[in-house]
């Protein structure tokens, strides 16, 4: 029964999910293919090195001249995770709250499906879509690794980075899903997910530069995702556990709330 | 196996918090027997949809109890497998074809033979190969009719099911309900279409402002209803003769220029006393209107009368 819901959620949304996977991968591939031009550009490197340390720290620009440094600040540093977070929040919101506000959730819930199972199956379907993004992205990065001259990053470390990216996406999908399932309100889920994304980015980049606020980095999913430099050091298991743990908590709270509350009729 | 299909006791539902909330149901006591077609009538906002959503466990009661087919609906997926539900504004994801939608919903029920859905679609003249977003409101509603009936559920819960259907399809729908009833299935039908209620329901419940106003036998209701009577006499008669009669209201006697007179009044119940009083005079014509079921319910809707509709009639 749950697998029916899981499959249906994926097939119903296949166009959107594939579209996002291709778009995010295209952005990543574009940045990656610029590495030979930008990374080897010594005047750009020296210009960046002349930036204030705080600013370089904020943008992860400590080490622009190496492939791992370049990828950490550009490809995996900002645009790709933010795009993935946007997709994750949208997909997480839509799975329960969006469906409920559209008024189409009533019909399914009038069928012999337990609410907990329905919500869990849809949550897993959203996670599967994020895994799909990660897989497509990793395959393309591996394919252009030699032509775009970033072989100094090992395949294993590239896979590790992508794995953490997927967990990062799952985390924001679960936050939006959880808020949406708990409240039934699309707006709360989108706004909550967006705030969480921005706050998590700020806690990793700018806020730690302020004296006495360095500790906020430790509670930022963005930092769990990128900190410890997976492109050089491989998988950071503690960070992965934190990302997975937060995802599970948000989903569990959301599903529990969904199971207990009234379902709205939709507008 | 109990012989009660739906039973609510003191069922109350309040939405929102104590300050801004609104009460949709204030203690509903309702019993629907197995195998009957029960009409559930009331003006918009009376609490019909709230009641139905409580039966399906889409919302939970503030107080009171609900039993559906002998079970508590709370978290009872197995029970929902025995129910077919159709909302008046049937809404479904439009990005799929009718067949895809029905296959999915059938799978959620553990599978429904494709031949059965095809047969229902055929009868309703519904094209299952088209994407639902390209269908008209009426055709979309047909998808809803098929999904509610396709697994031949023990209990059909239909919330203003024919809104958007043309008269021909309303008639088809009535046939489906009659068949279900002949099959021993129970039907809980909320409706505004009196012809549909008249053709299918034996008993009706009227709800107003979140309370059950009356439960009545459709035929009895018609018997006891108000009807307009008009009797023309060849001579002048006094109004006082008729004003004293029981069951007669708004009695007016008008004299005509040619020395005759006409009595107009509202009659409730048996016409016997009126006829015996009129028989003393020469009657030139007699007219008694058949009461419209619709009008009967308007009296309930507007005044919330109790009993069998014999409360004072507002002119």
Radius of gyration of chain B: 24 Å
The helical percent of chain B reads 25-40%
* Order of helix and strand elements from N to C terminus of chain B: EEEHEHEHHHEHEHEEHEHEEHEH
- Summed up, the helix count of chain A is 14
Low-pLDDT stretches of chain B are: 304-315
Q: Beta-strand percentage of chain B?
A: 25-35%
Element-level helix/strand string of chain A: HHHHHHHHHHHHHH
Shape of chain A: globular
Structural category of chain A is mainly alpha
Count, helices of chain B: 11
Biggest pleated-sheet summary of chain A: none
Short description:
The complex is a heterodimer of chains A (267) and B (315). With 267 residues, chain A is mostly helical.
Task: Provide an overview of this structure.
The complex is a heterodimer of chains A (267) and B (315). With 267 residues, chain A is mainly α. Chain A has one domain (2-260). Chain A has 14 helices and no strands. Chain A has helices at residues 2-12, 14-33, 35-39, 42-49, 53-58, 67-73, 75-101, 105-109, 115-144, 155-183, 186-204, 221-226, 230-233, 237-260. In chain A, helix 2 runs parallel beside helix 9 (115-144), helix 7 packs antiparallel against helix 9 (115-144) and helix 7 runs antiparallel to helix 11 (186-204). Chain A is globular and about 65 Å long. Chain A starts with a helix and ends in a 7-residue tail after the last helix. Chain B has eleven helices and 13 strands. In chain B, helix 4 runs antiparallel to helix 5. The N and C termini of chain B lie far apart (49 Å). The interface between A and B is medium-sized, with 23 and 31 residues.
Keywords for this entry:
heterodimer; A: 267 residues; mainly alpha; 75% helix; globular; B: alpha/beta; four-stranded antiparallel beta sheet; 30% strand; disordered C terminus
């Amino acid at each position: 029964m749950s697998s029916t819901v899981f499959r249906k959620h994926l097939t119903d949304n296949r166009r959107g999910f594939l579209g996002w996977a291709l778009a995010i991968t295209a952005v990543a591939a574009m940045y990656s293919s610029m590495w030979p031009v930008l990374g080897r550009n010594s005047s750009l490197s020296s210009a960046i090195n002349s930036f204030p340390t705080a600013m370089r720290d904020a943008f992860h620009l400590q080490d622009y001249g190496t492939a791992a440094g370049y990828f950490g600040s550009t490809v995996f540093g900002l645009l790709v995770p933010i795009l993935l977070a946007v997709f994750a929040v949208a997909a997480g919101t839509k799975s329960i709250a969006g469906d409920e506000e559209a008024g189409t959730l009533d019909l399914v819930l009038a069928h012999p499906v337990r609410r907990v199972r329905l919500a869990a199956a849809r949550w897993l379907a959203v996670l599967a879509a994020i895994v799909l993004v990660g897989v497509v992205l990793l395959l393309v990065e591996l394919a252009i690794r030699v032509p775009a001259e970033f072989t100094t990053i090992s395949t294993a470390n590239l896979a590790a980075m992508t794995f953490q990216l997927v967990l990062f996406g799952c985390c924001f999908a679960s936050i939006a899903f959880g808020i949406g399932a708990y409240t039934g309100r699309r707006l709360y889920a989108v706004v909550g997910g967006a705030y969480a994304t921005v706050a998590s980015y700020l806690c990793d980049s700018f806020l730690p530069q302020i004296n006495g606020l360095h500790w906020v980095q430790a509670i930022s999913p963005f930092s769990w995702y990128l900190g410890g430099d997976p492109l050089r050091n491989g998988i950071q298991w503690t960070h992965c556990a934190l990302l997975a743990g937060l995802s599970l908590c948000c989903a569990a709270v959301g599903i529990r709330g969904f199971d207990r509350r009234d379902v709205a009729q939709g507008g | 196996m109990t012989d009660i299909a739906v039973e609510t006791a003191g069922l109350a539902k309040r939405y929102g918090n104590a300050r801004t909330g609104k009460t949709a149901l204030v203690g509903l006591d309702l019993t629907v027997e197995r195998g009957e077609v029960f009409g559930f009538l009331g003006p918009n906002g009376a609490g019909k949809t709230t009641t139905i959503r409580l039966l399906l466990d889409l919302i939970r009661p503030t107080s009171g109890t609900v039993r559906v087919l002998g079970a508590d609906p709370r978290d009872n997926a197995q029970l929902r497998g025995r129910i077919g539900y159709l909302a008046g504004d049937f809404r479904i994801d439009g990005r799929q074809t009718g067949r895809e939608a029905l296959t999915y919903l059938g799978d959620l029920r553990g599978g429904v033979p494709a031949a059965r859905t095809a047969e229902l679609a055929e009868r309703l003249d519904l094209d299952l190969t088209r994407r639902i977003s390209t269908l008209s409101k009426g055709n979309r509603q047909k998808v809803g009719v098929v999904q509610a009936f396709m697994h031949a559920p023990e209990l059909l819960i239909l919330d203003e099911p024919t809104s958007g259907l043309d008269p021909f399809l309303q008639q088809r729908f009535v046939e489906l309900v009659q068949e279900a009833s002949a099959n021993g299935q129970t039907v809980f039908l909320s409706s505004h279409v009196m012809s549909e209620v008249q053709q299918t329901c034996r008993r009706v419940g009227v709800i107003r402002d979140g309370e059950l106003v009356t439960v009545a036998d459709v035929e009895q209701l018609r018997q006891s209803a108000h009807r307009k009577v008009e009797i023309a006499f060849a001579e002048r008669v006094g109004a006082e003769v008729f004003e004293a009669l029981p069951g007669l209201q708004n009695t007016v006697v008008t004299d005509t220029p040619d020395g005759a007179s006409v009595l107009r009044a509202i009659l409730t119940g048996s016409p016997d006393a009126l006829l015996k009083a009129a028989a003393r005079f020469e009657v030139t014509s007699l007219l008694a209107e058949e009461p419209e079921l619709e009008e009967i319910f308007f009296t309930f809707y507007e005044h919330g009368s109790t009993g069998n509709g014999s409360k004072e009639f507002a002119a």
